[in-house]
Automatic annotation (TrEMBL):
Protein name as it appears in the record: ABC transporter permease
Gene Ontology CC: one annotated term: plasma membrane
PANTHER family: ABC TRANSPORTER PERMEASE PROTEIN YPHD-RELATED-RELATED (PTHR32196), BRANCHED-CHAIN AMINO ACID TRANSPORT SYSTEM, PERMEASE PROTEIN (PTHR32196:SF69)
Species per Swiss-Prot/TrEMBL record: Paenibacillus sp. AN1007
Family annotation (CDD domains): TM_PBP1_branched-chain-AA_like
């Protein structure tokens, strides 16, 4: 197995493009504790809006803003279904994901939309610096947002809804804001990917929630999540590492590109099981040391009594 620097560089670039999607999944998965499957649909929504607008000669940056707005609307609708419609969170996301399939098809007008040959900021050869700046700006903005009153209420909603309600906060509003913001970031990531790949496809969002979860979990396993700063940085780093691991796995001869979903599932399983096993081993080691200390102290007391 030989790995070229170009393939690693490509994996890092792709990881950065998907980093905003990972930040969006972090908001719902870690902060709100909300199982949001809207992601699979809103990612495509972002790509579809961007591709259609760019093909109609709108500015790529304007297309990105419109894509983000589309994702935020989809997320807000999921939040409304859950908070006002009293529909289970998981089911709300599934329903919106199904609805978005038809909406995305309407936006695209066909199963896919090509923007090959159209110059965009994310379709050139040297997009690394640009995407690093964009990701850092959104990461810092998210960090600052989480320190505002609304951001603190958002974090408290995920930790303990009853407590935050007792302080007079409206948890329905914070939930809707959180899910909306999450899907806005996911759709923006979809817009970047559509520009980088030169097309938007109706199936481009399938499995995005798993990739987002993998990025968040891998990043937290490496960097931890002591503060919001570290947690958001972990999501970005996790997205990059996930892409590098996938690139390395696909270099193995008996893996095919069609095995990508299997590789993703295996990475998520390892990322979930390994920290649990590590904690369990530490707890067993501490219990064993404690038992040995108690036995030694018990023996010394017995000798003293004699």
């Amino acid at each position: 197995m030989s790995i070229s620097w170009n393939s690693i560089e490509g994996a890092i670039e792709l990881g950065l493009l998907y980093a905003l999607m990972a930040l969006g999944v972090y908001i719902t998965f870690r902060i709100l504790d909300f199982p949001d499957l809207t992601v699979d649909g809103s990612f495509t929504t972002g790509g579809a809006i961007a591709a259609v607008m760019i093909s109609n000669e709108y500015s790529p940056w304007l297309a990105c803003l419109a894509a983000m707005a589309g994702g935020m609307i989809a997320g807000a609708l999921t939040g409304l279904l859950h908070t006002k419609g009293k529909i289970n969170g998981l089911l709300s996301g599934i329903l919106m994901m199904i609805a978005l399939y038809s909406i995305n098809m309407r936006i695209l007008g066909a199963p896919n939309k090509s923007i090959m040959g159209v110059e965009t900021p994310f379709s050139g050869e040297h997009v690394m610096i640009l995407i690093i700046i964009v990701v850092l700006v959104f990461k810092i903005m998210l960090d600052l947002f989480m320190k505002t009153d609304i951001g603190l209420a958002l974090r408290a909603t995920g930790d303990n809804k009853r407590m935050i309600r007792s302080f007079g906060a409206n948890t329905d509003v914070t939930t809707i804001i959180g899910v909306s913001l999450s899907n806005g970031l996911v759709a923006l990531s979809g817009a970047f990917i559509a520009q980088q790949s030169g097309f938007a496809d109706i199936t481009m969002g399938i499995g995005m929630i798993v990739i987002g979860l993998a990025s968040v979990i891998i990043g937290e396993a490496i960097l931890g999540a002591r503060t919001v700063f570290w947690a958001t940085l972990a999501a970005v780093v996790g997205s990059i590492i996930y892409r590098i691991v996938v690139a390395l796995a696909l270099q193995v001869e008996w893996f095919d590109t069609s095995d990508l979903k299997l590789i993703t599932a295996v990475i998520v399983i390892i990322a979930l099981v390994f920290p649990t096993m590590q904690r369990s081993m530490k707890q067993r080691s501490l219990a064993r040391k404690r038992t040995e200390e108690l036995m030694r102290s018990g023996g010394q007391q017995a000798k003293g009594g004699m």
